Amino acid sequence: MQLIRFAQGKRQGLAVVVNGHAYDLAGMGDPWFSSLQAMLTCQASVRELQEAIAAWVDQAAPSFDGRALIERGRLEEQGETIVLLPPLDQQEVWASGVTYKRSEEARKAESEGAALFYAKVYDAPRPELFFKATPHRTVGSHDAVGIRFDARWNVPEPELALVLNTRLEILGYTIGNDMSSRDIEGENPLYLPQAKVYERSLALGPGITLAGWAGDPQSFSIRMVIERGGQVAFEGETQVSEMKRSLDELVGYLGRANSFPHGVVLLTGTGIVPDDSFTLAPGDVIKISISGLGTLVNPVVVVGA
């Protein structure tokens, strides 16, 4: 089972996909399931939400072909176009940095005179956490991610993303692509917001696998393939178990002296970084897969030119 957000005509909805069939949660008639924000802000436990959805699906009729929507990003159903949306509505997105050894090595290599800071972050008690995106800067699967017009060295960062409710409990998991301009950040660590936060700088999707349906995240494998001209230009793989910090630790620090009235999405860092000679180009296609969560697919465009 996986939650997806979709647009059908002028309406945005939330559905659960079971065995390829999508069930529009509006049919439940319960305000808890009217939107993702409603689920993240209600007082019900994550288990209660999952049980209510499962019980309703047992007696509901499918609304549309969920598998086709996830695979294509859009489909025609009874004369209307249905579009897959990113799995957030009013949530901020935050990110964790230098949580894998490969990320520490890459950040040290790209930085001019600031390598020591990244080594300290990797070993420090306090993790690196930073603001990443708002909903309008975020795209879903099959929509285009952006590379800055004023950057020369751009890479995707495939990451496990946590979808957290207002109590900072993990509702579920999705796939994130934290786009990064490595030359801008490498010039000066104070340029991190410009390297990370811009139009189309984040992709999330295709949906949210609720925590009770996902299994142990420590067993998740993450794989990324970048295609250029129909050929593989880069591929890499890692395991969530290779992350130095625990998910609970990252969530705990995120909630220190902070609150999220709409819920929040937290990226947990990347363990896959292309070689220093690689940079994204317009027309590339990035495919990020996490076991049990599906595949996030995004073409690349230049933004801001």
In short:
The chain is of the alpha+beta class. The protein has nine helices and 20 strands. The chain has helices at 36-41, 46-57, 66-72, 101-110, 115-123, 182-187, 192-196, 211-214, 247-254; strands at residues 2-8, 11-18, 21-24, 64-65, 74-77, 80-85, 92-97, 128-133, 138-139, 145-148, 154-155, 158-164, 170-178, 180-181, 202-210, 221-228, 231-239, 264-267, 285-290, 294-303.
Q: Helices and strands in order, then pairings?
A:
Layout: E1 2-8, E2 11-18, E3 21-24, H1 36-41, H2 46-57, E4 64-65, H3 66-72, E5 74-77, E6 80-85, E7 92-97, H4 101-110, H5 115-123, E8 128-133, E9 138-139, E10 145-148, E11 154-155, E12 158-164, E13 170-178, E14 180-181, H6 182-187, H7 192-196, E15 202-210, H8 211-214, E16 221-228, E17 231-239, H9 247-254, E18 264-267, E19 285-290, E20 294-303
Parallel strand pairs: 7-18, 9-15, 10-20
Antiparallel strand pairs: 1-2, 1-6, 2-3, 3-4, 5-6, 7-8, 11-14, 12-13, 12-18, 13-15, 16-17, 16-19, 19-20
Descriptive account of the structure:
- The structure is a single chain.
- By secondary structure, the chain is an alpha+beta fold.
- It has 2 domains: 2-85, no CATH class; 92-303, Fumarylacetoacetase-like, C-terminal domain (Fumarylacetoacetate hydrolase, domain 2, Alpha-Beta Complex).
- Helices cover 22% and strands 38% of the residues.
- The protein is built from 9 helices and 20 strands.
- A 7-stranded mixed beta sheet has the order 8-7-18-12-13-15-9.
- A hairpin with a 5-residue loop joins β12 (158-164) and β13 (170-178).
- α4 (101-110) runs antiparallel to α5.
- It is globular, with a radius of gyration of 19 Å.
- The model has no long low-confidence stretch (mean pLDDT 93).
